[in-house]
Amino acid sequence: MNKNRLALTVGLLLIVLFALMLFTFQVRQTEVALVTTFGKPSRTETEPGLKWKLPWPIQRVLKFDNRVQNFEGKFEETQTRDGYNLLISVYAGWKIKEPTTFRNAFADGATARATQTFEERLRSEKNAVVGRHPFSHFVSTDPKEMKFAEIEKEIEEAVKKSLLDSYGVEISFLGIKRLGLPESVTQKVLERMKEERQRFVAKLQAEGLSEAQKIGSGADLERTKLLTAAEAKASAIRGQAESDAAKYLEVFEKNPELALLLQKLSALEASLKDRSTLIFDTRTPPFDLLEGSKVKTSPATPK
Amino acid sequence: MEKNNLRIGLVNWLILLAAAAVTFVVARYVKSASGLVAGILLAVGFLVALVAFFQMRLEERERLEKLEFDELNRQKGSTNLFSTDEADTFAARQSREMFEKYFVRVFAVLLCAGTGFGTWWLWSYLGTAVLDVSEERSTIAMTTTGLFGLILFLIGKYTSGLARLDDQRLLRPCGSYMLFGAYVSFLVAAALALNLIGYPRYDLDLARVLLVLLGLVSAETLLTLVAEIYRPRVKGKVARILYDSRLVGIVGQPESLFRTAGQALDYQFGFKVSETWFYQTVREKIGQWAAIWVLVLIASTSVVFIEPGEQAVLERFGARTGGLLEPGVHFKAPWPVDDVYRFKTREVQTLNVGFVPKDDDHGKTILWNVAHYKEEFNLLVASRESGTTNVTGGVSVPVSLLTVSIPVQYQIRDVDKFAYAYANSGEMLEKVATREVIRYLVGVDLNEVMSTGREEAAKNLLSTIQKRSDELGLGVEILFVGLQDIHPPTKVAEAYQGVIGARQEVEARVLIAKGYAIRTVLMAEAEAQQKINDAEAFAAQRVTGAAATAAKFTNQIQAFNASPSVYPMRAYLQTFAKAIGPARKYIVTTTNSSEVFQINLEDKIREDLGDVYIPATRDEQRAQQLKQQQQPQMPKAP
């Protein structure tokens, strides 16, 4: 009996629990709920908490995430006003503003389908906006030329209008996520970058050669200047020496003949220092001794 | 009583049919794998209950027929005992026998084949089909399956009890399948509940478990069929029902397992273990203990441990309530009233901009011309050099490409914003950071950002990413933006490295030139100094020599005055002897002045064998010395 009572209690508890689950639903902080009665939207629950409803199939509850959702479009090639092909992808934050419109637009509010639809809309608007701007509005070192933020705003405004009315979705913000160039253009840009570097290398090498040559020639100039100055100074010293030495010549005037003889003898000695061949006859003193003649005792002055 | 059994049999198969159909539809509706398999299991139960019902009806007809026959026999007495043909008399019994002999066997074979094929097909289907349980519809499905589980449980309990008490063997498979279906429905409801609280994978796990059970039912039916072939046919012994599964009976009525286990223990120990106090207590209380365990499990959801480095938010019926839960123990209402969501607010998290890191990139040298990440993107960067006019008359793209790898480190600063403002705040931050990097690069010059502007770029990016995150309310604090790699793409990296090589070459050339200059100037200075020194030496020699010569001459005058006739000759001969010493000399001693001499004065350019010096022997040297000593000495010049 007790066992049956327990089983009955448990059964009743379970029935109450299931009934509660049939008649209530939770709305989380991150959700917004749409209650439909026989398929027709009857009310929207935006505040979180426990809510009442009639059981299925009378009422159905569709819950949507009310947080800002991430969206990122494809990295797509398009053309700028001045004819440049540009790859561009945008990202956006969107949230469901009108659940009823959203639910009507996408069966049971399928987010995947919604994303696909946004992509289609966004591509169209994005390409239109990009086509109105020259390339320099996207990439430039000139702040006056650059219109990056303005382009983002233009795309956002264009998409915002169409999405809220048609799909009950609000775009919170939109930005350009990536910019790029098509592969063929990328290759050309890379080649140009290479050429730039090579030109720079050639310039550097020429500068180096020029600098080295300047330094070398400067050194040669300095050398010449130094040697010339030294030569001049040496000449002056030598001249002064000659001048100083000339003072001592006066003494030779006391006996010029002797002086000349002595000078000749010095010159003779100096001139025979290197290899020389001399041919004498016996008349040359002291070889006159070889003639067998008597040695002269009288002084003789060599001529 | 038998009529009642028939009614119960009818109710059984009707409820099983309804349960199977509803479970199947609901499973399709919510795309639940476990619901799908449960529907199949309930459909098997329905077929078993239906066959059992027909068999019950045949048995009922047979019973009535036998009663009629007995009544007839009493009225007629024993005179006509052998007058009636048995085949005509027991038509109902024959029908029942024919049913059991053919239909039940064929049904058992089909059941075995059907469940076997169903197991194989569903197993392969679950492997390929995408069955993502819809969260929004889970509540409805959970409620429906739970409700049917309850109905199946209550009626299944009643049927099983009735089958046991009245020994209604045909009600037993119905009761077993009802209870089995009830537990399966509860499990499916539980899997859907887990899906609701964020554990969707249990649905598929449960589906696989149920499929294994379905396969076991098939195997068991096959074994029963084989056993039926070799079963000894003993008259009066009731054959086992072919479609009655023991496995389903054990799962549907676990208490039967207790009975079987008790019997096994009794047999093993040799006394009635099943009648002991312990066994009886366990058998009676196990349900209560299980209930208590479930209650404890639910109560355990009232205690939350927040780990160090974490913060959590509390939601009551989905609504954010109270302050942040800091690390430590916290109490809350049990699930599903309160729920806690944790966030690692102290943990430094990193996102990567411009590259996808490799799984393992430790200990490698990072070079510009070798890709060092799994994926690297070429980002556009402005170029100060204006576009040059190309051959088509257009202007070439004034843009360069750059490879960057920028790790952005952040912490969650405001949990409420991080958790509730965005569906995926981390992913959104990655997009925002990438946008800011792109925006920065398209407005700066390539060479600037790679060299002098690098530090400024990091500061600028940190500031702009933080500012934008605050504007969007992401609730994060940017701790670090690192420009760890910022260089030209790998394809042009060598050209950039070539510049560095060229710079080195230029430096080398300049250094060589400077070395030459230093050497040249120093040598020139030395040479100049030498010239001056030579000149000074010359001057010193000249002046001193002149002075010395003058002094010497003064003395020579005195000598000359002392001996005017001899002194000149003496001076001449002294100088002559000294001067002609090393010279080659020819002295012509003839007195004939008309004699002509021819003397070859040319030098030998090369020496020949005759010029080789042969050293003298010791004896020859001695003889030569003696000869020299004997020769008269040349008189010295005066």
Structure description:
The complex is a heterodimer of chains A (303) and B (638). Chain A is an alpha+beta fold and 303 residues long. Among the domains of chain A are: 2-65, no CATH class; 69-181, Tetrahydropterin Synthase, Chain A; 183-216. In chain A, 49% of the residues lie in helices and 21% in strands. Chain A has helices at residues 2-23, 99-105, 111-130, 148-167, 183-246, 256-271, and strands at 24-27, 31-37, 40-45, 49-52, 59-65, 69-72, 76-79, 85-96, 169-180, 277-281. In chain A, the strands form 3 sheets. In chain A, strands 6, 7, 8 and 9 form a 4-stranded antiparallel sheet that branches. In chain A, strand 7 and strand 8 (85-96) form a beta hairpin. In chain A, helix 3 (111-130) packs across helix 4 (148-167). The longest helix of chain A is centred in the last third of the chain and has 64 residues, at 183-246. The mean pLDDT of chain A is 84. Chain B is of the alpha+beta class and 638 residues long. Among the domains of chain B are: 2-78 and 88-245, no CATH class; 303-343, no CATH class; 350-488, Band 7 domain (Tetrahydropterin Synthase, Chain A), CATH 3.30.479.30. Chain B has helices at residues 2-30, 33-76, 86-89, 91-128, 135-165, 171-196, 201-230, 246-252, 254-269, 277-300, 415-420, 425-441, 446-450, 454-472, 490-562, 567-580, 618-630, and strands at 303-306, 311-316, 319-325, 328-331, 338-343, 349-353, 355-356, 375-376, 378-382, 399-412, 476-481, 485-487, 584-588. In chain B, the strands form 4 sheets. In chain B, strands 6, 9, 10, 11 and 12 form a 5-stranded antiparallel sheet that branches. In chain B, strands 3-2-5 form a 3-stranded antiparallel sheet. In chain B, strands 1-4 form a two-stranded antiparallel ribbon. The termini of chain B are far apart. Mean pLDDT of chain B is 81; it is low at 386-395 and 631-638. The chains are: A alpha+beta (303), B alpha+beta (638). Strand 10 of chain A pairs parallel with strand 13 of chain B, so a sheet runs across the interface.
